[in-house]
What we know:
Layout: H1 9-17, H2 23-41, E1 44-47, H3 49-64, E2 75-79, H4 106-113, E3 117-122, H5 162-169, E4 175-180, H6 186-191, E5 195-198, E6 218-223, H7 226-236, H8 254-258, E7 266-270, H9 280-295, E8 299-303, H10 311-326, H11 344-355, H12 358-371, H13 376-397, E9 403-407, H14 423-427, H15 434-439, E10 443-450, E11 456-463, H16 468-482
Parallel strand pairs: 2-3, 2-4, 7-8, 7-9
Antiparallel strand pairs: 1-3, 4-6, 5-6, 5-10, 9-11, 10-11
Helix pairs in contact: 2-3, 10-12, 10-13
Bound molecules: glutamine.
Glutamine (GLN) binds at residues 128-131, 160, 180-184, 212, 319, 430.
Amino acid sequence: MNALTDLTLAEARAALVKRDVSAVELTQSFLTAIEALNPRLNAYITVTPEQALAQAHAAEAALARGEARPLTGIPLAIKDLFCTAGIRTTAASRILGNFVPPYESTVTANLLRDGAVFLGKANLDEFAMGSSNANSAFGGVENPWHREGEPDTALVPGGSSGGSAAAVAARLALGATATDTGGSIRQPAAFCGIAGIKPTYGRVSRFGIVAFASSLDQAGPVARTVEDCAILLGSMAGFDARDSTSADLPVPDFAAACARGVKGLRIGIPKEYRLDGMATEIEALWQQGIAWLRDAGATTVEISLPHTKYALPTYYIVAPAEASSNLARYDGVRFGLREEGEDLKDLYERTRRAGFGEEVRRRILIGTYVLSAGYYDAYYLKAQRVRALIKRDFDEAWGKVDAILTPATPSAAFGRDEKQNDPVAMYLNDVFTVTANLAGIPGLSVPAGLDAKGLPLGLQVLGRPFDEETVFAVGHAIERAARFTATPSLRAAA
Ligand code: GLN
């Protein structure tokens, strides 16, 4: 028999509406699974069983009245970067360790409006800075996947949305919210064998999401299938007057777009995404993806995105610069932690020293440096110029192609002890993902295969601004061809 936790979101929704499954029973199965597995995985920082069951009961009543909304009774994990009214929101930082927001983020409010059940707050890298979830003040997250024959070697789930991705992969939620500043949705999705989309900048409101780098941050969903991501994005997205960068555009039917197929689409293959020393399996999977899309009726075109090689250094100037400015608000006066001092300056310094972890401090130092008088032109302004060139590369590509296919990450999930002492090696994880944030375009990661050790690998689909529909159609075609059915070694019992 299939456990309820093994249903996809779309299947669970259909079963709830037909009243084959009760919303309370469904939520209870996830809470039981969380109780069993979270002590090891540490995917959730906070579990909210009472709230979840109350929401499930309300969902059950709505279903009984025949008043189902798009997500009525669907249990989700919420990245602990989204403010949730009355529920502690930590950003995985000591400095917000006791912060209980008085208001709800727009994304979570939209999900609640549509009937979702919140199981709890998912772990992440502190302030979403990282690629391994090792930078959480609440401890790392274990990837539910393991290399074949190495069940005791803990691997990272990727980051920063490592808790969201691990929870979904291990069947501790049907889907989760996540955020992506340089790859934090797509890289953990790829490492955990699930799907995740970073929408176009402006598609989803940033109101009530703890800010990292405001010109790059975008929220999106992770889920086990492309269609499930499409359903979730449909609820999360939409214009919001409280976010000045929110796009006033209608929200298309993303789920319907999945089934469009790729016949006649032109798919760009950017030659700059072929890296020296990249694992042969990743190159092979990319070629396989090209073949799948051709078989499904698309044509593929080699394209060039010549400024790609500058994307990583550009990102690691722009993102820390914005972060250093955004994080100035954590001073011990208004939010969270306060360490008393002899005078105001001493209070600031003690609070920030005690509250911020090592990686966050590194980013603040880099950001303050590149913004300082004398260096601003050399670093920050230069990076902004290069960013414009990276965006122009894509603008030119859209004249020739409808979507772009690349690998999602340069490697599969790595061990917890690897790369932790080498920040630059860690930053390389984002080499295929940061361009989409710099250019503001949508990017989807789809699980597409396994490496020689049995670990999941993802392919990435990039699209035109506000054309998530084509991205979903291409992603869905890859998913169908890949028939990715492998499951992680740690997951809720089937
Ligand atoms: N890994 C990248 C970083 O550390 C991206 C993080 C993100 O997308 N939030 O900045």
